[in-house]
Amino acid sequence: MAALITLAEMRKHVETDLEDTAMQRLIDDADATIVKQFGEHTSQVDDGLTGERRLFPSRPIDADLIVTETIIDGSGFEQDTVLSATDYKILNGGRVLKRQIEGDNPRQFWGQRVKLSYTPESDIVRRARVTVDLVKLAVANSGTRREEVGDFETWSLDYEKERTSILSRLHTSAGAGGLMA
b vs e for 128-149, b when ≥16 Cβ sit within 10 Å of the residue's Cβ? Predict the structure, then answer.
């Protein structure tokens, strides 16, 4: 998947003497970090264990929800069922799924394992802004915390701390941890 920000767009935000290939590596790294920590830009799969009535997706659900529930019997046999929309209710703006006692596949609690595949609420603009800020930070990073030349002394930001702070803007109110009981 292509990065959210092209090299040409990034150059409008960041002034640097870096060559195109070096700048593209920074863009790709920022984009890959976002995807690794927060999921694909336009699709999401949450896979986890549960046994409770409510699930908390890692991102708010917008559309195209497919719920696959796995029931494991006493002998260890696993039965996967793709649930219908009557088997659960989406609450709180897509942030919570509640198992329904009635429906095509009624159960009081979720099965031992549930997998959600869906289109999340769009956060593309926020992700693009985070990408720009991560690249700006990387360009400004000299690799040292303190530099001294003659009487002149400079201090740099703590790169990892700043990077973590920038990435934290992508956490949703449900968290980025996936399914929870």
Answer: bbbbbbbbbbbbeeeeeeeeee
Which pLDDT does position 169 carry in this prediction? 93
Pairing of strands 44-49, 78-82: unpaired
Q: Are strands 78-82 and 88-91 parallel, antiparallel or unpaired?
A: unpaired
Cβ(28)–Cβ(3) below 8 Å: yes
H/E element, 24: helix 20-38
- For residue 40, the tally of other CB atoms under 10 A from its CB is 11
Judge contact between 48 and 178, C-beta under 8 A: yes
Confidence of residue 159 (pLDDT cuts 50, 70, 90): confident
Asked if 139 and 18 count as a contact pair (C-beta separation under 8 A), the reply is yes
Determine the Cα–Cα distance for residues 76 and 9; give it in Å rounded to an integer: 53
Q: Which residues of 92-104 are buried (b: 16+ CB within 10 A; e: fewer)?
A: eebbbbebbeeee
Residues 6+ apart with CB under 8 A from 114: 47, 48, 49, 50, 55, 67, 68, 69, 70, 179
Q: What is the pLDDT of residue 180?
A: 44
Residue 81: pLDDT band with limits 50, 70, 90:
very high
Cα–Cα separations (whole angstroms), residue 70 to 76, 84, 89:
11, 14, 18
